[in-house]
Design a protein that fits this description.
Blueprint (H helix, E strand, L loop, with lengths): L1 H28 L6 H18 L4 H30 L4 H22 L13 E4 L2 E4 H23 L1 H11 L1 H6 L4 H23 L9 H16 L4 H21 L2 H18 L11
Helix pairs in contact: 1-5, 1-6, 1-8, 1-9, 1-10, 2-3, 2-4, 2-8, 2-9, 3-4, 3-8, 5-6, 6-8, 9-10, 10-11
Length: 286
């Protein structure tokens, strides 16, 4: 049981970065970014490129992943999503754009890096024993860094001027515009921040389980599960969804094969959404 709790806590902390990033993008733009998992994938591959190919320190790779993917996210929002949402009369167009972007990024990564699983050596060596459970030092670093980043992002969103503008934009875009907020700039920054969080999660996990060019779809699916559980566009809901999925995975993998675990998770998710379609912390639609 101790091992399940440790594994669930580590998964939850890392998943929270992914879900938090997707929630920021959805809350600000009302767009489900189907390319979010590809941002995770690119973050991991950037760390591989910086650390394994060029031999630079892991901290440099982590910063490079967050900054580069954050810039990619801002460029996507400015050059693609703002244009489509400004000219299209239907929200489905922006979602189709996100799907197309996901395929573009995935195939570009496949061309550049191939199908091979990429990874880097653990950041630190050693194993800690907690009761009957074992905690590798590398996973402890991932857990601590994830928690620190979550705390930093929450502090930014709730206690800074830009963060308050992002929350206002998520609540009422029209009123925020009338108050003189530069909606385009805030949207671009929020999209970039969400992308950077996903990339950071990938940059952290590459030292644990590795990444490959096709992992983006699976990560996007997990991100959607988390926000459906917690409630779309709700920051607290994203964190709660990450905890639920992280511990569900840890318990499932301890009891069942991997394929059976996600079969059970999907069945439970469908049953849950039939009872509460808006998620645990979300508000009813309409």
């Amino acid at each position: 049981m101790e091992q399940v709790i440790i594994n669930g806590a580590i998964l939850s902390a890392n998943y929270a970065l992914i879900a938090l990033g997707l929630t920021l993008i959805f809350g600000i733009m009302n767009v489900l970014n189907f390319a979010h998992g590809q941002m995770f994938m690119i973050g991991g591959l950037v760390v591989y490129w910086v650390c394994a190919v060029y031999g630079m320190p892991y901290g440099v790779g982590l910063a490079a992943a967050a900054v580069s993917v954050g810039v990619i996210g801002m460029a996507m929002e400015k050059g693609l999503f703002q244009r489509v949402m400004g000219s299209a009369g239907r929200e489905e167009n922006s979602m189709l754009l996100a799907v197309g972007t996901a395929f573009l990024l995935e195939n570009a990564a496949l061309y550049l890096f191939g199908e091979k699983q990429r990874g880097i050596p653990p950041m630190v060596q050693g194993v800690y024993r907690i009761g009957n459970a074992f905690l590798p030092a590398n996973r402890l670093v991932v857990f601590v860094v994830s928690l620190l980043l979550i705390a930093a992002v929450l502090s930014f969103v709730y206690y800074t001027r830009t963060g308050r503008a992002m929350r206002a934009l998520a609540q009422d875009r029209t009123a925020t515009t009338l108050m003189g907020v530069e909606v385009g700039r805030i949207s671009m920054f929020g999209f970039g921040l969400g992308a950077a969080l996903a990339a950071t999660a990938g940059a952290l996990l590459i030292s644990v389980s590795g990444v490959n060019a096709g992992i983006g779809t699976a990560i996007s699916t997990k991100a959607f599960i988390m926000i459906m559980i917690g409630g779309a566009g709700v920051i607290g809901g994203a964190l709660l969804g990450a905890i639920v999925l992280g511990f569900a995975e840890a318990i499932g993998y301890a009891l069942f094969p991997g394929s059976v675990t996600y079969l059970i998770i999907f069945v439970a998710l469908i049953a849950f959404l039939l009872v509460r379609p808006q998620g645990i912390m979300g508000k009813p639609w309409g």
